[in-house]
Protein: Fe2OG dioxygenase domain-containing protein
Organism: Chenopodium quinoa
Amino acid sequence: MAAPVCCLPNDDLASRLVQKIAQTVQDKIPEQFLHKDGFPESKDVAELWTDSLLIDLSLLSSGDQDEIVKFRSALSTWGCFLVKNHGIEGSFLEEVIEVSRKFFSLPFEEKMKYYTDDIFQGYDTDAVCQGLDQQKMNWNDRLFLTMYPKNKGNLKAWPENPSNFREIVDEYSKEIINLAQGLYKAAAKSLNIKEDSFCLEKEGVILSRFTLYPKCPRPKNVLGSKPHLDGSIFTIVLADREGLEVQKDGQWFKVPVIPGALFVNFGDFGEVLTNGIYKSTMHRVVTNLTKDRLSVTAFCTMDATEELTPLTELVTPNRPSLYKKFKVCEYKEGVCCKCGPGENAIDAIKLEFPLL
Ligand code: OGA
Ligand code: NI
């Protein structure tokens, strides 16, 4: 995909990194990050995440009916859940966090070796289109890598420092590929469609994003990540602190960090493939006054050349297709450069059909 116009030249990179800004600004946050009127409060409903939105993957994969019903209900109402018993060791998840934190603590010149002019590969601050005047910037820096198939991404974006980064992230990629396959199968089972309806082997891609959200002197006016929907089938999130929030029926809810569990949200491509049965979750990340936050997200998505449309088995006379056919690359361009505040790329592909 061509580099969007919003990328600044390499020379300007260091000065726009949020980590750098955070070290120097005290409480004078640059205007472009400030939401002057603040943003809506969130609720903390702990029981949600220990009950109806906590999925046990081992039960799900063994065909446990109650768990399948719970999974379907979580995805058709919230579009997200926490997953436990997913097969990845808690101690290994901690290693992934640790090595990612070590990367972000390297000197800026070292990290900048992994800058690329493709906004979905390598190290940079969060790319928000600056041509749209009212667009506020997100308070985070990130490293994008393609986990699967690895050679479809830019291999130069893979850090050589810390020295064990590649080894650990390669291992994590294998675990994520396995988990993604388990979740694809579970999603198909829960919809009573062919097991390989969603499938990594065909044109699946897993893009990972390592994000550092520095601590922020104005957490009531600055967002780590503005409300958005993901351009993925689903996204798997590993984080070392709270900060992620999801929206349901206009209300924001905090997502807790439960050691060993991972957060999964459906994205726009998942909503389209399921013809709207499973929802893409609106989410945001808030900032924290005293602590920074590290997350590793894995976007389970499709190759940029793929054309997406609802799965034929999920289109019926009673439920006609709710989305136009579109190419993944067209959607990505829409996300980066066309959507203004409050607009979402998926709106451009929705068809207006009343549900019968
Ligand atoms: C994202 C995202 C959540 C997080 O990268 O799209 O929403 O917790 N990340 O960092
Ligand atoms: Ni997201």
About this structure: The chain has a mean pLDDT of 91. The chain has one domain: 10-349.
